[in-house]
């Protein structure tokens, strides 16, 4: 999929932040950050604030994958998140947007160090055919934390998200709105999985279902 233009990416980031709030998947603090890959050499648009409430285009800066600000002003406390975003673009050429939130139901799994299980039909519809893995904890934005994210990306080359142990989630897809949608279905799935617990717990798909779904997607393409 072609990378969106600068203005399309900027508009979609603002729309994606609104959508995350409208659908009620943000934590109470509204904490989060998001980025979009720009056409050209290792550049991204990145939020310069640490929450996504009322995100405006002026709160987006252009920055290199190494953290050099090209346009705008980046709050020093925001600089530490650069590596968490750029590592995904470096590992996944098809990814053009990355969003980090503390969406509460999904973050409960991250606190429990439990992968978010692939047990919900909506996952299959978005091409997710395995559990969302957990990256080990390390200080936020540290090289160690980034290395744990990269390790999960390499071990699970098709997943569009990783849980960050004791912290939150990182989701990524072809554009900001598609990435917001991944977070919405993860949060839905996390809530349904937790709600199913007193009923005996979520059950997996029938034997062979994931392979059948993969074949189906190859034939018709993902509907996302
Ligand atoms: Zn965070």
UniProtKB/TrEMBL annotation:
Residues 11-194 form the Class II aldolase/adducin N-terminal domain. Gene3D superfamilies: Class II aldolase/adducin N-terminal domain. It comes from Ktedonosporobacter rubrisoli. PANTHER family: 3-OXO-TETRONATE 4-PHOSPHATE DECARBOXYLASE-RELATED, FUCULOSE PHOSPHATE ALDOLASE. GO terms for cellular component: cytosol. The keyword Metal-binding applies. InterPro entries: Aldolase_class_II_sugar_metab, Aldolase_II/adducin_N, Aldolase_II/adducin_N_sf. GO terms for molecular function: aldehyde-lyase activity; metal ion binding. This is Class II aldolase/adducin family protein. One of its GO terms (biological process) is pentose catabolic process. Keywords: Lyase, Metal-binding. It holds the Pfam family Aldolase_II.
